[in-house]
Predict the 3D structure of the following.
Amino acid sequence: MATPSLVLKVDVDTLRGTLEGVPRLVELFQRHRTDATFLFSLGPDHTGRAIRRVFRRGFLGKVKRTSILEHYGLKTLLYGTLLPGPDIGRRAGDAMRRVRAAGFETGIHCWDHVYWQDHVAGADREWTVREMRKAAERYADIFGAAATVHGAAGWQMNTHALWLTAELGFTCCADARGAHPFLPVVSGETIRCPQFPTTLPTLDELIGLDGITADNVADRLLALTATPPMTGHVFTLHAELEGMKFLPVLDRLLAGWRDQGYRLGALRTLVSEMALDTLPRHQVGYGTVPGRTGTLLIQGSAVDQAKSGINSPLDPQRWPGPGYDRSAATSPRPSAPDSPGSY
Ligand SMILES: [Zn+2]
């Protein structure tokens, strides 16, 4: 059996994460001699708006509220509220280019994280095209080349966005949660842009559940990866968390995964190992994952070629196959996640 891969996908949500978290991650990955995929938020940083909501709704306990301040910093919490949201691409283009110059894979996370998360689920094609185009154009401005990778903010997508992954010419996308790479099927039609779903829980999903703390979260994740799947893993980390306070946790994880026999790498590592035309075709829908508020895009059941076309998988009234938390399917549209750590 070939060595299983473990892909390191870095979601970068904020200006602070881009300027401070990303360089630390670059340094750590270089020390561990691994490639990784950095996905950037390219437009305004309105993080404060999302966080204000979280505080108001009172969903989070005191400990979590305190740690939000610690992870994001006071200034970030005010962007889009008391302070204007800074334009991340304008302010941090150099920092982004340095990542690519250092040899890492780069791609698009979003234009405006908060706006995307709040609106994409119910948005029409025009809205979706506009937001994805803004991100694609800014990416091309910064890097002088078109983006080849897309990984949606907060795993929030709609059918228009899924079609656009192919129309905008991405080589691969990481927009969903799931078990293994697949080609998404929407309304019976296959979208010819492969999805490489995040297969493992994120640190912020695990911490706080089931007695898991920052001190033992690495052990818990390593227990989950002890038996490598043939199709490998995709782990999503955040510049604002693993690039800052949880850097030592990530350091332990990288060493642990090497010891378990994984080849660490970027999405392009995994893409190069797969015959994309032979990937299984799967429906997609909205579902929930433990430790995270709200619904997100989830890999659904495999589509039998002969039966395709019967389901409209993103229509919650006709939810695809088993394996989901169906309670999420009763809402008319998915709800945006509440935790800023959910980015
Ligand atoms: Zn994000």
Remarks:
- Residues 308-313, 315-343 have pLDDT under 50 and may be disordered.
- The two ends are 35 Å apart (CA to CA).
- The pocket of zinc ion is lined by residues 11, 13, 109, 113, 153-154, 343 (CB under 6 Å).
- Residues 125-143 form the longest helix (19 residues).
